[in-house]
From TrEMBL:
Source organism per UniProt: Euphydryas editha
Top-rank taxon, per record: Eukaryota
A single Gene Ontology CC term: Ino80 complex
Region span, Disordered: 17-54, 105-131
Biased composition (Low complexity): 17-27
Pfam families, sorted: INO80E
Domain (INO80 complex subunit E N-terminal): residue spans on this chain: 52-99
GO biological process, one term: chromatin remodeling
Matches recorded under InterPro entries: INO80E, INO80E_N
Bias-annotated ranges (Basic and acidic residues): 30-40
Name of the featured protein: INO80 complex subunit E N-terminal domain-containing protein
């Protein structure tokens, strides 16, 4: 159940990141980049553009919300699985107890039969030795 949801959510998240990256690149007007190149004498010494902290903050905030939501979903799934495990463990213990009761009952009757047959075999073996 979560596998399909998880894959779709990862794909949606990656698509949103790609869209936000393309929006941030297109936000700078192309003529401003050209004007900077015109004024600089050396293209390798272009100053690094300042990081857009507002965009980074909003992106990280979205990722945090997504991770919190995902964590809650996994905790819910874990809780359900633990409940099922507890139920199965109780059923298993109950069935093993019932099986043990029947085995004890069967073993007492089979032990008495084995004892009688072994006593008969010993008795027959003793009679054969006397002859």
């Amino acid at each position: 159940m979560l596998d399909g949801w998880y894959c779709r959510s990862i794909a949606n998240m990656q698509a949103n990141e790609a869209a936000s990256a393309s929006n941030s690149v297109s936000a700078d007007p192309p003529h401003s980049r050209d004007s900077r190149k015109d004024y600089s004498s050396d293209s390798s010494s272009d100053p690094e553009p300042e990081p857009n902290y507002k965009v980074q903050y909003s992106t990280l905030k979205k990722k945090l919300k997504y991770l919190i939501y995902e964590n809650e979903c996994f905790q819910d799934a874990l809780r359900c699985s633990q409940k099922r495990l507890l139920k199965v463990s109780r059923d298993r213990s109950f069935l093993l107890d019932r099986l043990l009761q029947y085995e004890k009952h069967d073993s007492t009757t089979s032990d008495s039969e084995d004892t009688e047959s072994s006593d008969d075999a010993t008795y027959n073996h003793a009679e054969a030795m006397k002859r």
